[in-house]
Write a structure and sequence with these properties.
The chain is mainly alpha-helical and 119 residues long. The chain is built from 5 helices and no strands.
């Protein structure tokens, strides 16, 4: 097996039946959904906490939610790969967007129910 054959096979296993361009576009729309969901929760922080900046700070939001963003990214990647097999239809940009929007809410719900991130 030469390197080109290996890379072609590997791409097929990683991306499944979608093209790299479809995968990249779906990832973009899914992460837009995650960003909207994340942005909606920035106003719910305790404004009187010492850790919360007085004005909105993009870098604070990213670092404070790094774990949440990482979990969402991994979940989106798994969805993009397995959605044709799970749903039985071709991946669309609209479904990728709604998965990005809802995966964050699912993570929050699981945390509130102490199913994940138990303390």
């Amino acid at each position: 097996m030469n390197l080109l054959t290996f890379l072609a096979d590997f791409k097929g296993y990683v991306l499944g039946s979608i093209t790299p361009a479809e995968w990249a576009a779906a990832l973009l729309f899914a992460m837009v959904g995650v960003s909207i969901s994340l942005g909606r929760y920035t106003n719910t922080r305790d404004k009187h906490s010492e850790r919360t900046p007085l004005k909105f700070n993009f870098w604070f939001m990213l670092t404070d939610n790094a774990g949440r963003i990482w979990i969402n990214l991994l979940s989106v990647l798994i969805f993009l790969r397995f959605s044709p097999e799970l749903i039985g239809t071709k991946l669309t940009m609209l479904s990728a967007f709604f998965v990005g929007l809802s995966i964050d809410k699912l993570t929050i719900w699981l945390r509130e129910k102490n199913i994940i991130d138990k303390k």
